[in-house]
Design brief:
heterodimer; A: alpha/beta; 6-stranded mixed beta sheet; globular; disordered C terminus; B: 219 residues; MetI-like fold; 8 helices; binds adenosine-5'-diphosphate; binds magnesium ion
C-alpha cells in the first residue's frame, strides 16, 4: 500500500531493451529519509532502475510515483521531476570546460533562476561539506577521481533534491580514493538524506543502509535490513551472489579499504 | 632572358587592392560560414524531416561537387532559372560562404558527437532542458574542439578565393592575371603572385598546425 512518506515508488515497472525485460514488473519504494542500497550482479538492470526513476530512460509499462505524483511523460514535467532528484554517476560526468564552482552553480542558475550570489554561496557551503573548500576555481581535469566524484555529489546537492540516486559512485575510483567518497555519502545519510545507492561496497551497505535490495535479472529477488540480507539471506541466488562478496562484509576488509 | 622586376613596382597598388579583396572575401565567407554551418548542422540533427531533408540535400550536394561548379552555377544558372541576378561579388561571396558552411556543418556535427553522452545525461539529470544542455554543456566544448578543423577550412577557403577570378571579381588572382595579359610579363607577375599568396598562406597554415596542437583533445 502507498504510504504517506513515500518519496519514490515503482509500481509494476517494466523496461525492455531489444525484447528483453531489463526491468520486469518491478515494485520498489523508498520513503523519506531512507537509505536503500541496491546490490546485484552486473547487467542485472540496476543502472536502468535508476535511469528510469528520473526518466533518463522511458519505461514501457507500469507507473512511477514521485512525491505523490505520477511521473508524467510530458517534457516539462520530466524536467521538474529531474530537478528534484540528484543523480551521481559512476564516471562523475563533470563538465570539463567549467570550473568546479561553475559546475555546481550551472543548474541552479539556469534551471531555477537563482542569483549568482545565492548559488555561489550554497556552492561554497557544499564544497566545504565534501571537503573541497579550496577547489572552486580548479578545472575537473586537474582533480583526482575521488575529488571529482565529491564535486559531482555537491553539484547534485546544489539543486536541493528530495532524493539522491547513486549509480556505483566508487566503482571507477582507485581503491585508495573510495573511502573519501563513501565518507561523504555516509555523512549525507546521517543527515537524513533520502538515498538510493547502487553499490558493490558491501561494508558501506551493511553499515549505512536502512534496507538492502538484492537485484538480479530485472527482479528484486530479496529486500530487507542489512542484517537480514547479509547474515540470513532467504534466496539461493542472494546467497550465491553474496558468497563472492562475503569477505567484504565480514570485516576482512578494512574501511576505507581496498578493491575487491 | 631579361626580367623586368621594376614593372612590378608600378603594379603594386593594383596587386595590393587585389590582396585586400581576397582577404575581405575570405573573411566574410567565414563570418557567414560559421552561423551557416551551425544552422545546417542543427537542421541535420533535427528530429523534423522538413529540416533534416533540405539540410542533407545542401550538405551532400555541395560536398560532392567542385566549388568552381557551384560558383558558375550561381553565376550563370541562377539568373536563367530563377531570374535572380546577383553582382559578381555577391555571387562569389555566396558561393564561398555556402561551401564553407557545408564543411563547417560537418565539423560541428563531429564536435557535438564527440562530447560523450554521459555529460548530456548528467546535465539532463540536473533538470536542464535539451536546449540548455546544448547551449551550456555540449556546444561550448564542441566548438572548442572544432577550432583546429575550422582553421584548416580557413586555409583552404583562402586559397579557393582565387576561383572567383573566373567571374571577374577583382581579387588577387584576377588582378594578377589581368596584369599578365596587359604587360606580357608572365614570369614576373606569376612569380609575384605566387610569392604574395605564399606569404599570406604560410603563416595561416602554420597557425592552423599550432591550433591543432593546442586544442588536441586528450581524454
Ligand atoms: N541503452 C541500452 N540499449 C540496449 N541495452 C541496454 C541499454 N542499457 C542497458 N542495456 C542492457 O540492459 C541490461 C541491464 O543493464 P544495466 O541496467 O546497465 O545493468 P547494471 O547496472 O545492473 O549492470 C544489460 O543487459 C544491458 O546490456
Ligand atoms: Mg550499472
Amino acid at each position: 500500500m502507498p504510504r504517506e512518506d513515500d518519496v519514490l515508488e515503482f509500481r509494476e515497472v517494466t523496461k525492455r531493451f531489444d525484447q528483453t525485460n531489463v526491468l520486469d514488473r518491478v515494485d520498489f519504494r523508498v520513503c523519506a529519509g531512507e537509505v536503500v542500497c541496491i546490490v546485484g550482479p552486473s547487467g542485472s538492470g540496476k543502472s536502468t532502475l535508476l535511469r528510469c526513476a528520473n526518466a533518463l530512460e522511458p519505461i514501457d509499462s507500469g507507473t512511477i510515483v514521485f512525491n505523490g505524483r505520477t511521473v508524467g511523460r510530458t517534457k516539462r514535467k520530466l524536467y521538474k521531476v529531474r530537478q528534484q532528484m540528484g543523480m551521481v554517476f559512476q564516471n562523475f560526468e563533470l563538465f570539463p570546460h567549467l570550473t568546479v564552482l561553475q559546475n555546481i552553480v550551472l543548474a541552479p542558475r539556469i534551471v531555477k533562476g537563482e542569483t549568482e550570489s545565492v548559488a555561489v554561496g550554497r556552492a561554497r557551503n557544499l564544497l566545504r561539506r565534501v571537503g573541497l573548500d579550496d577547489f572552486g576555481n580548479k578545472y575537473p581535469g586537474t582533480l583526482s577521481g575521488g575529488q571529482q566524484q565529491r564535486v559531482a555529489i555537491a553539484r547534485a546537492l546544489a539543486m536541493e533534491p528530495d532524493i539522491m540516486l547513486f549509480d556505483e559512485p566508487t566503482s571507477a575510483l582507485d581503491p585508495e580514493r573510495v573511502g573519501e567518497v563513501l565518507a561523504v555519502m555516509r555523512d549525507l545519510a546521517n543527515q537524513g538524506t533520502t538515498m538510493v545507492v547502487v553499490t558493490h561496497e558491501m561494508e558501506f551497505a551493511r553499515s549505512v543502509a536502512d534496507r538492502v535490495v538484492f537485484f538480479d535479472r530485472g527482479h528484486i529477488v530479496e529486500s530487507g535490513t542489512p542484517e537480514r540480507i547479509f547474515t540470513n539471506p532467504q534466496q539461493e541466488r542472494t546467497r550465491a551472489f553474496l558468497s563472492h562478496h562475503l569477505s567484504n562484509v565480514n570485516g576482512q576488509r578494512s574501511f576505507p579499504g581496498q578493491a575487491h | 632572358m631579361n626580367f623586368d622586376w621594376s614593372a612590378l613596382w608600378e603594379s603594386l597598388p593594383v596587386l595590393l587592392a587585389g590582396v585586400q579583396t581576397t582577404i575581405v572575401l575570405a573573411f566574410l565567407a567565414m563570418l557567414l560560414g560559421i552561423p551557416g554551418g551551425l544552422l545546417l548542422c542543427a537542421g541535420r540533427r533535427s528530429r523534423f524531416r522538413v529540416l533534416t531533408l533540405p539540410a542533407c540535400i545542401v550538405i551532400d550536394g555541395l560536398r560532392a561537387t567542385p566549388v568552381l561548379l557551384q560558383l558558375f552555377w550561381l553565376f550563370y544558372v541562377l539568373p536563367l532559372a530563377f531570374d535572380v541576378q546577383l553582382s559578381p561579388y555577391a555571387t562569389a561571396l555566396l558561393a564561398l560562404a555556402l561551401n564553407v558552411s557545408v564543411f563547417n556543418a560537418e565539423i560541428f556535427r563531429a564536435g557535438i558527437n564527440s562530447i560523450q553522452r554521459g555529460q548530456s545525461n548528467a546535465a539532463l539529470a540536473l533538470g536542464m532542458s535539451g536546449t540548455q544542455v546544448m547551449r551550456t554543456v555540449v556546444l561550448p566544448q564542441a566548438l572548442r574542439r572544432s577550432i583546429p578543423a575550422l582553421a584548416n577550412i580557413w586555409v583552404s577557403l583562402f586559397k579557393n578565393t582565387a576561383l572567383v577570378s573566373t567571374i571577374a571579381v577583382a581579387d588577387l588572382a584576377y588582378v594578377a592575371l589581368q596584369l599578365r595579359t596587359e604587360t606580357y610579363k608572365t614570369v614576373e607577375i606569376l612569380t609575384a603572385m605566387a610569392l604574395i599568396y605564399w606569404l599570406m598562406g604560410y603563416p595561416q597554415a602554420k597557425l592552423a598546425d599550432s591550433l591543432q596542437n593546442r586544442y588536441q583533445v586528450n581524454e
